[in-house]
Amino acid sequence: MTTKLYANGVKQSGWQPFNGKLWQRNYYEHIIHNDNELFKVRDYVDENPANWEMEAPPHDLFPFPLP
């Protein structure tokens, strides 16, 4: 879910506001220094969506309906 979608849900659908930070904790950017790192990042981007369903938390943990 995007931050914009959540904000719209709070404004338009009565979702409970979240007063904390909405950004990923410990997020950082990484500079790719060589071809080996580039290949690792490409593999991650290509393969990561396959893990989403396995890693998704149960829907009953969310205080609002998911799209």
What does this structure look like?
Helices cover 42% and strands 0% of the residues. It has a domain at 24-58. It contains three helices and no strands. The protein is elongated and about 45 Å long. 0% of the residues are buried.
Tell me briefly what this model is.
The chain has 67 residues and is mostly helical. It contains three helices and no strands. 42% of the residues lie in helices and 0% in strands.
> How far apart lie the N and C ends?
8 Å
What Rg is obtained from the alpha carbons, in whole angstroms? 16 Å
Number of helices: 3
Strand content: under 5%
Secondary-structure-based class equals mainly alpha
* Overall helicity: 40-55%
Number of strands: 0
Shape: elongated
The averaged pLDDT comes out at 76
Following the backbone from N to C, one meets helices and strands in this order, namely: HHH
Mind describing the biggest β-sheet? none
Query: Which residue ranges are poorly predicted, with pLDDT under 50 across at least 5 consecutive positions?
Result: none
